[in-house]
Write a structure and sequence with these properties.
Elements lengths: L5 E3 L6 E3 L14 H18 L7 H11 L3 H59 L1
Antiparallel strand pairs: 1-2
Length: 130
């Protein structure tokens, strides 16, 4: 029987089970607060080691938007269509679930009636004869 290895979280100091794939580098548990702190630290480290990463990027975007003025508008429209499709899928799934619940309830009612006929009715019939 193998025990899961545990490590102390760098941020909250609580023990957490290590992920098999990342156990050598893992320093934070999976709680939202610790993950945010880890991300903040990683972003800070990245900015220090890549100070010029964001320089010159806005000019590129500005030029791109001049060449493609309707890009963002089209993107939002496509995003809206995708969201509508998801909503439609959700409605369909809700209907299926409602149908399944309804049919399950009907089946349970039938099963209870059968149980009564098999188990309760014979007991009641025996009591009538006394």
């Amino acid at each position: 029987m193998s025990k899961k290895r545990k490590k102390k979280c760098k941020y909250c100091r609580k023990l957490f089970p290590l992920n098999k794939k990342t156990q050598k580098n893992q320093e934070a548990c999976s709680t939202e607060v610790c993950q945010r702190l880890r991300k903040k630290k990683n972003n800070k480290t990245f900015k220090k080691s890549n100070p010029d990463y964001w320089k010159g990027r806005y000019e590129y975007i500005k030029e791109y938007r001049k060449r493609n003025p309707d890009y963002q508008k089209e993107w939002y429209q496509q995003k809206g269509k995708a969201a509508k499709n998801v909503k439609g899928d959700l409605e369909e799934k809700k209907q299926k679930v409602a149908y399944l619940i309804d049919s399950t309830n009907k089946n349970l009612t039938i099963l209870h009636e059968i149980q009564n006929e098999i188990f309760v009715a014979p007991l009641l019939n025996k009591g009538e004869g006394l």
